[in-house]
Design a protein that fits this description.
The protein is of the alpha+beta class. Helix content is 31%, strand content 27%. Strand 25 and strand 26 form a beta hairpin.
């Protein structure tokens, strides 16, 4: 067994050396039978700080995985999470924080991107969180595969998620324990599996390979007392002629090795994969080849079984360069190619994708992800919505993966029906498996041990994906499924009460063994300069990511020379005009002040040390932001309002700043609520009047 404390002490602080890392260990137990994999993950969170904390981990899961159970152990108490509508679950969690109680929340932020939040871990305390998710295996020729993602490479483009929720990379490499039980032979790529156990690192995905199975029904009972029978059947290759647009990513990130010690780049592998289609290129097949970086380019077409022409096209694919505009490339192909289906070969490291728009084309889009640190999220969601498959290529097997993808595309696509009531039967093809689910009117007397709840969850996920919202929400909540509609939440009512807001400790995913240095445009001279100043720090992926992105600065903050005009100069001008303004003009003045305050508020890390902010301690803020708060605190109207409410002026200003972005930043909202609870009055009308007085006073 690993010694969690020893692991923790080796990786005590984050890469900046500022805050302890609260995630001590992560272990996985895998059970495989009848084509279904069930993964149980144990995570131990520990707080060695003097203050209570909130640990937040955002991480990838396979897009088609169904997470259906969460439990936590706190001081010997074992608690089970309940499923609630997403907004309700978040309210339950935030209410627990307000009351100082320990709580755990598991949400699906995007398809394939999950987040665990563990609130009010008291100083010296531990919370062990256990989750379960299930996924049918992927069939590739004579083998079945499962990938457990653990980290990702640098991601191109900004996601729709708040910074506090988004994936963070650059964390330490840590050992983990893996346990695998399976009917038939099983192996873990690149690892020694002894007695079903392996010790490996968290810095690359876990790729499990198992035998092809004989179909066998898996039986379970729903919470409403219905028996569910889930059958997973490997499918033979389809026989339909191909009408396929193949879209190859040749952006800069594809120039990197794609893992496992392979000498070839991801782009080399993609080109070889395209060439491999020639071995089974039929007389009725049509291949339309495209490539893309910042923009797409048509390479050419092959038909009539001309293997030579297809090989010639593969040879025309050009070397990697430029950015990654996956959405634009897919949209172009959908509009300009006559092919009926699309197959995308990419490392998937992009947020720049309008999934809903692209899914409306009526075309099936399948995806092959190349590389150990590829990301399924948005591109995998697109494949799922269009009825396509998603396959992941490990170091040596892209040709086999390509063959598996082509086998699926040779089958006709039969989408799940749109339903408004509980079905008796559903079936679909995914990843070369026929998934069949049947519901009976009464419970089953004999259920499949260990797999019963997983089978019910996977079958129920089919309903969630094709039912109207009311039915989908009911089924997801009843069966405890984490989805776009529902989350899992638990509150430890027996825990002690923490008097202060928890400090946010964002847990970074481990630094990947294979990194994608070309995903972003960056100024190499700047990075080289930083490397020479501090080679260890500058070589970290997180540092390079920060160097490549500079958040917008408020207009009033100096950036080497005074801004013109400053915020205070503009506010003074507004003050001189206030007496002349009424109605919409006065409201416009307030709006300008609010916009300026939002700009300041967005420069504050509201989760790092909320107790300092609530106490009016400005030492953790930048000099410019601290000066702004001090200047506003000197305004006579602010000082009088603060005195009437029994608060220091600086605390009032911090509260007003937090209030301006409370709707977009829940950690700012927590600070605003805490400060407003200290005030004798905080009604909106009086606060608006205070804003007007601020404008008039300056």
């Amino acid at each position: 067994m690993l010694d969690p404390l020893a692991v923790f002490l080796r990786n005590t602080f984050d890469e900046r050396g500022l805050t302890p890392i609260p995630l001590i260990s992560t272990d996985h137990d895998v059970v495989i039978a009848a084509g279904l994999a069930v993964v149980t993950t144990h995570r131990l969170f520990k707080n060695v700080e003097a203050q209570n904390i909130e640990a937040v981990l955002t991480f990838p899961l396979p897009v088609l995985a169904t997470l259906f159970e969460l439990t936590a152990e706190v001081e010997g108490r074992k608690l089970r999470a309940n499923s609630q509508a997403r907004a309700e679950a978040r309210r339950t969690y935030e209410d627990a924080i307000d009351r100082g109680k320990s709580a755990v929340l598991h949400e699906e932020l995007l398809r394939g991107i999950h987040m665990i939040s563990v609130a009010n871990i008291q100083s010296g305390g531990e919370i062990r969180v256990t989750t379960k998710w299930a996924l049918p295996l992927t069939v590739m020729g004579a083998r079945a595969t499962l990938r457990i993602p653990q980290t990702v490479g640098d991601i191109y483009g900004r996601s729709s998620l708040a910074d506090a929720d988004d994936i963070l990379c650059g964390g330490p490499r840590q050992p983990i324990l893996l346990s695998v039980r399976a009917t038939g032979n099983v192996e873990v790529i690149g690892e020694n599996l002894t007695g079903g156990h392996a010790k490996l690192m968290n810095s690359k995905p876990i790729d499990v390979v198992a035998d092809i199975w004989e179909p066998k029904p898996i039986v379970g009972n729903t919470t409403s007392g219905q028996a569910v029978t889930l059958t997973l059947s490997p499918q033979p290759a389809g026989e339909r002629a191909l009408s396929l647009a193949v879209l190859v990513d040749h952006s800069g990130s594809m120039a990197d090795s794609f893992g496992g010690g392979a000498a070839v780049t991801a782009h080399d592998a993609a080109r070889n994969g395209v060439a491999s289609i020639a071995s089974n290129f039929g007389a009725q097949d049509f291949i339309d080849l495209w490539e893309f970086d910042t923009s797409p380019t048509h390479v050419g077409s092959a038909s009539n079984g001309s293997k030579a022409e297809l090989l010639k096209l593969a040879g025309r694919l050009t070397p990697p360069r430029g950015g990654t505009e996956i959405g634009r490339a897919i949209d172009t192909v959908l509009n300009m190619s006559a092919a009926g289906d699309v197959l995308l070969l990419t490392d998937g490291l992009s947020h720049e994708l309008d999934v809903q728009k692209l899914s409306q084309s009526g075309r099936r889009i399948s995806v092959i992800l190349i590389g150990e640190n590829s990301l399924e999220a948005k591109i995998g969601h697109l494949a799922a919505l269009t009825g396509g498959d998603i396959f992941i290529a490990t170091a040596d097997d892209l040709e086999a993966v390509m063959a598996a993808a082509i086998e699926g595309l040779r089958r006709p696509y039969s989408p799940l029906p749109s339903i408004k009531k509980m079905p008796e039967r559903l079936e679909c093809n995914r990843s070369n498996i026929l998934i069949q689910a049947e519901w009976s009117t009464g419970p089953a007397e004999m259920v499949s041990l260990e797999l019963d709840r997983a089978a019910v969850a996977v079958a129920s996920s089919l309903i969630v994906s094709c039912a109207e919202t009311t039915l989908a929400s009911q089924v997801a909540a009843a069966e405890g499924i984490v989805s776009h509609l529902t989350s899992l939440v638990l509150v430890d009512e027996a825990s002690g009460i923490q008097e202060e807001l928890p400090a946010l400790r964002k847990v970074a995913l481990p630094t990947a063994d294979v990194t994608y240095s070309a995903c972003y445009e960056r100024t190499d001279a700047i990075v080289d300069h930083c490397r020479s100043a501090s080679s260890e720090m500058a070589s970290s992926p997180l540092f390079e990511r920060n160097m490549r992105y500079s958040p917008p600065r408020p207009k009033f903050l100096p950036t080497g020379r005074p801004a013109s005009p400053t915020l205070f100069e503009r506010m003074a001008t507004l003050g001189r005009l206030t007496d002349k303004l009424t109605g919409s003009e006065r409201q416009s003045s307030v709006s300008q002040l609010t916009d300026e305050m939002k700009s300041v508020a967005r420069q504050i890390d509201w989760g790092q040390s909320p107790r300092n902010l609530i106490g009016g301690d400005l030492s953790g803020l930048s000099g410019e932001v601290a000066a702004y708060i001090s200047r506003l605190a000197e305004v006579e109207a602010v000082a009088k309002f603060a005195e009437l409410n029994g608060l220091p002026s600086e605390v009032l200003v911090i509260g007003l700043l937090a209030r301006t972005i409370a709707s977009e930043d829940r950690r700012a909202n927590r600070v605003w609520k805490a400060i407003s609870d200290l005030m004798r009055t905080s009604v909106p009308e009086e606060l608006v009047e205070l804003e007007l007085q601020i404008i008039a006073s300056l």
